[in-house]
Specification:
Layout: H1 14-18, E1 42-46, E2 48-49, E3 52-53, H2 55-71, E4 75-81, H3 88-93, E5 98-103, H4 112-117
Parallel strand pairs: 1-4, 4-5
Antiparallel strand pairs: 2-3
Length: 118
């Protein structure tokens, strides 16, 4: 009896072709196709370093502004953290049309679990 380690199998089909008995059948999971035609706007996740907006975030807002112009859409800054409301005007000044602000004490320092749970 063959045992397949699903953590290592890449679903390439080599074993199916090599089997002289034709006993191997591979069922590839069908991905769910999402209709993205209704999606719009260019979102930028804003990063912070030492309680300030990271300069890379401003660079990304600039690139997003160009892309949004081509797509005729808006630039949306997604800003998570603690005590950050005071920084939202700077994001708008640097290119964001809108800011999604999530302000929680738990987001004051980057801990992946806290961000994932938000």
């Amino acid at each position: 009896m063959a045992v397949i380690d699903l953590d290592k199998c890449t679903l390439c089909g080599a074993c199916k072709e090599a089997c002289p008995f034709g006993a191997i059948v591979i069922y590839k999971p069908q991905g769910v196709k999402t209709d993205v035609s209704g999606y719009k706007n260019v979102w930028v996740f804003i990063e912070r370093e030492e309680q300030k907006i990271a300069s890379v975030s401003f660079e990304l807002l600039g690139k997003a502004r160009v892309l949004a112009g081509d797509l005729k859409s808006k630039v949306v800054a997604v800003f998570l953290g603690s005590d950050i409301k005071k920084d939202t005007q700077e994001l708008i000044y640097k290119g964001a049309d809108e800011v999604i602000l999530v302000e929680k004490k738990e987001l004051g320092h980057f801990i992946a679990e806290n961000y994932a749970n938000t």
